[in-house]
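Private note to self, pasted from the team thread so I don't lose it. Backbone tokens:
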């Protein structure tokens, strides 16, 4: 039998240690949680509890204090004097009207302070004294009219300042003194009319400045002095009418400049001088008829929509050698040959919503890298031979919603890489068999919502890569046998909403990979047997809303044998 050994009794030393530990625990006072707040370790949540003043007895170990969504009106000096461990303080959505000197005394470790959505009217010098470690300060949605010089002195670690949605009218020299670590400054949605020279002095690390939705009228050459590291400047929705030459000199690291929705009427050759690294420029909704002479060697995106441009001259974009994306919704009627010479890097050109009637030969010469051309919603009537000469890299061409009646032979010649062609919502009546010659890589062809009555045999014969063909809502009455020969990879054909009366058994011959065939809302009376002979397994044939009266016994034998679903309601 194995002997059992009893657990040894604790020695005197162990007993003594346990006794002392218990005495310490029992003698340590339990820090009360100010009612009716909720507390968890160093978190104290007092939000939405109906407080009209800062509650007493907040534990001095608190690191996170939520006092938002109350009715607090006043904060007495030294209220937070014992909360040296506090790192986060939320006071937003109260009714605080004044912040006096000493309001935040004792909060030397505070990193985030939110006092937005209150009734504060002014930021006094000394109000924020002692917040040496503050990194984020939200004062948006108040009624602040002015910021006293030196108001932010001492906040050398602040990285983000939001004073948006206030009533500030002027930014004086020295307004933001002391903010040597500031990276983002939001002063949007105020009433700023004037920015004094030197207003942003000392903001050496600022990378983003939001000044949108103000009343700024002029940008002078000392407005942004010293902002060497600025990357994003938002000036949209102001009342800017003039920009002094050299106004942006020194902003060599700026990547994005947003000037949309202003009243700028002219951009001079020196207006944007110094912006050597600018990547995106937005000038939408101004009144700039000419952009000639601007040199921005690294610009990638240019927005010039709704800017009263009626004509593109042949030197319009000289100096924009790196441009990739260009947006030009305006009232353009003419594109002169050679307009785009010099922007050979352009990949996306948006010309929709203009008044272009004619595309002359050579209009797009030089755009050897262009992949997408959007010409929808214009007034083009004819596509002539050579209209798209030079667009050897084009993969998508959108011509929908124009007035196109005629597509000349060879209109799309040279577009060897075109994959998507959109011609829907035009006035095309006939398609000849040489219309799409050379488009061997085309996968999507949109021809719906036209007035097409006749499609010549062989029209699609050169489209060997075509997958999707949309011909719905036209006036097609007859589909000749072999009309779809050539594009043997077709997946979808849509012929809904035409006036087709008869489908022969050779109409869709050779389409062994077809998934779906739409023939709804026609006037079909007869469907010959074996119509979908050779189609891929498990496809769909839609014959709804026709007037089929003649169906042979074996009409759908093939279709059903390969698992096709037939809809013929």
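Design output:
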């Amino acid at each position: 039998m194995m002997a059992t050994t009893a657990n040894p009794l604790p020695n005197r030393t162990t007993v003594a240690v346990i006794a002392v530990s218990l005495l310490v625990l029992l003698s340590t006072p339990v820090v009360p949680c100010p009612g009716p707040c909720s507390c968890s370790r160093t978190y104290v949540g007092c939000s939405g509890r109906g407080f009209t003043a800062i509650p007493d007895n907040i534990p001095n170990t608190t690191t996170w204090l939520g006092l938002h969504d109350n009715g607090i009106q006043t904060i007495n000096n030294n209220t937070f004097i014992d909360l040296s461990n506090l790192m986060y303080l939320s006071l937003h959505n109260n009714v605080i009207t004044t912040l006096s000197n000493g309001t935040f005394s004792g909060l030397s470790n505070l990193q985030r302070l939110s006092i937005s959505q209150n009734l504060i009217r002014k930021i006094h010098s000394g109000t924020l004294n002692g917040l040496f470690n503050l990194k984020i300060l939200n004062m948006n949605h108040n009624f602040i009219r002015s910021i006293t010089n030196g108001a932010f002195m001492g906040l050398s670690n602040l990285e983000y300042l939001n004073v948006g949605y206030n009533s500030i009218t002027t930014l004086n020299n020295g307004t933001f003194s002391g903010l040597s670590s500031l990276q983002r400054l939001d002063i949007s949605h105020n009433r700023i009319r004037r920015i004094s020279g030197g207003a942003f002095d000392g903001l050496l690390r600022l990378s983003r400045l939001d000044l949108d939705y103000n009343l700024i009228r002029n940008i002078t050459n000392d407005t942004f002095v010293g902002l060497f590291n600025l990357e994003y400047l938002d000036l949209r929705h102001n009342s800017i009418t003039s920009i002094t030459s050299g106004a942006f000199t020194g902003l060599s690291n700026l990547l994005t400049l947003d000037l949309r929705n202003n009243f700028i009427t002219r951009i001079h050759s020196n207006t944007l001088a110094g912006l050597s690294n600018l990547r995106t420029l937005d000038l939408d909704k101004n009144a700039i008829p000419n952009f000639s002479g601007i040199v921005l060697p690294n610009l990638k995106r240019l927005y010039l929509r709704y800017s009263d441009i009626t004509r593109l001259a042949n030197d319009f974009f000289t100096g924009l050698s790196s441009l990739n994306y260009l947006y030009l919704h305006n009232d353009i009627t003419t594109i002169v040959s050679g307009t785009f010479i010099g922007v050979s890097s352009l990949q996306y050109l948006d010309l929709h919503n203009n008044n272009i009637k004619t595309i002359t030969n050579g209009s797009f010469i030089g755009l050897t890298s262009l992949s997408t051309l959007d010409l929808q919603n214009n007034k083009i009537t004819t596509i002539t031979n050579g209209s798209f000469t030079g667009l050897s890299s084009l993969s998508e061409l959108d011509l929908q919603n124009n007035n196109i009646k005629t597509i000349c032979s060879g209109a799309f010649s040279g577009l060897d890489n075109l994959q998507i062609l959109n011609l829907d919502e035009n006035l095309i009546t006939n398609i000849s068999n040489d219309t799409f010659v050379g488009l061997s890589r085309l996968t999507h062809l949109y021809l719906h919502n036209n007035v097409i009555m006749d499609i010549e045999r062989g029209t699609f014969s050169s489209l060997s890569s075509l997958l999707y063909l949309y011909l719905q809502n036209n006036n097609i009455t007859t589909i000749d046998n072999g009309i779809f020969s050539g594009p043997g990879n077709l997946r979808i054909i849509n012929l809904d909403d035409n006036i087709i009366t008869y489908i022969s058994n050779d109409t869709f011959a050779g389409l062994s990979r077809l998934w779906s065939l739409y023939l709804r809302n026609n006037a079909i009376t007869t469907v010959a047997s074996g119509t979908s002979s050779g189609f891929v397994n498990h496809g769909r044939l839609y014959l709804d809303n026709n007037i089929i009266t003649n169906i042979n016994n074996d009409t759908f034998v093939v279709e059903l044998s390969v698992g096709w679903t037939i809809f013929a309601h």
